Amino acid sequence: MIVGVIVGAVLLLLAALLSLGGRLRGLQRAAVRLQRRQQEAARLQERALTLQRTAADVEQQVAQLQERASAIKAVRG
């Protein structure tokens, strides 16, 4: 009788451990996916900053060209 209770308890413990192991593997996969997404987000953020700088440079060039065009128009009358 006692042996049966001990065997049952051990089986229950093994079942719980197997279930927990499956959950831990799922969490590990989720953590890996999250890390990849964070790395991709960091790369996208760097690209966004580069695009912002480029856009600011282009805006400055456009402003300079407009000033030149206005000066040429003023000279031509």
Low-confidence runs (pLDDT<50, min 5 residues)?
none
User: Secondary-structure element order, as H and E?
Assistant: H
Percent helix, as a range, is over 70%
Rg result = 33 Å
Helix count from the secondary structure assignment: 1
Overall 3D shape = rod-shaped
Distance between the first and last residues' Cα: 112 Å
**Largest sheet features:** none
Based on helices, strands and strand pairing, what is the structural class?
mainly alpha
If you average the pLDDT, what whole number results? Answer: 92
Q: What share of the residues does DSSP label as strand, in percent? A: under 5%
Q: Can you count the beta strands?
A: 0
Helix and strand arrangement:
Blueprint: H1 2-76
Question: What features would you describe in this structure?
Answer:
The chain is an all-alpha fold and 77 residues long. Helices cover 97% and strands 0% of the residues.
Labels describing this entry:
77 residues; mainly alpha; 0% strand
Quick summary:
By secondary structure, the chain is mostly helical. Helices cover 97% and strands 0% of the residues. The model has no long low-confidence stretch (mean pLDDT 92).
